[in-house]
């Protein structure tokens, strides 16, 4: 018995690709060059072109990842499921779905993420997205260079960015979809403060400096659960409250030895909460062609409550939106993306 060589793909379940095309580029960012963390300014940028896109200017939908996500994570496969690119092929294989180019953006940092905001500790990731990536895509692909035909979508930290960036930059994005995006910080973040404080006391000499030294010098992924609460919270601090005196570091909103809130720093965090930002961004939100929100009803970070609270603020502002609470947790919800992308493509086509 011998193996014989077969040309082409083995087909499902290993490859379910359709007629779409994924271009995997590497770009160099001027804005990210010299960032305080020393993260590379060379970034992957993926562009998905559905079948039927030639020279006509079509809408674009930008996908941003959750915390610790890298752009190549979109090719991860859960058992018996298509990966994200295959889901796009399946979605746009339906000719009734309006064409849209989908752009996968990487905003990873040494802390695991950037929250897609500008920070002196991590880098100007909102400007990178809005002022470098978007113009590059518009210059090199048949996309409509109009905020009314451009959307942002993501889950978790990506869902946070999907809410916050369009509110702050409606000149770039005119619609968004947020899957379980970080919101209502006192519900979603506060419980992690006590866990991080305990871990810091028991495993890291009660010191953030000791913690970070071990993050950057040890194989900490072998003990992920021990490091995770502190890493995520510290990454948020680097995004929301960068330390002006220590490049690359953040100001923590709680005491390391007790978990007690440091009120002035915590108030600065709350200024970044989408629920609290919404009333200040009424005009931007009112101009969105679609606001799409969803979350699992058993989300471990209680971001279903954050989504509901954000929707309540939209109600007060008279902003139309779509909201769905579905059976599920925080993970394993990639199947939700195509529904949102279809809704965005239809809204941007109008």
What distance separates the N and C termini?
59 Å
Query: What can be said about the biggest beta sheet?
Result: 8 strands, mixed
Q: Could you spell the SSE succession in H and E letters? A: EEEHEEEHEHEHHHHHHHEHEH
- The CATH class of the largest domain, by name, is Alpha Beta
Helix content: 25-40%
Strand content: 15-25%
From the alpha-carbon coordinates, what is the Rg to the nearest angstrom?
21 Å
Commentary on this structure:
- The chain has 350 residues and is α/β, with parallel strands linked by helices.
- The chain has two domains: 21-184 and 273-349, Alpha/Beta hydrolase fold, catalytic domain (Rossmann fold); 187-270, no CATH class.
- Helices cover 36% and strands 15% of the residues.
- The chain has an eight-stranded mixed β-sheet with strand order 1-2-4-3-7-8-9-10, sandwiched between helices.
- Strand 9, helix 11 (303-317) and strand 10 form a beta-alpha-beta unit.
- Helix 5 crosses helix 7 (224-240).
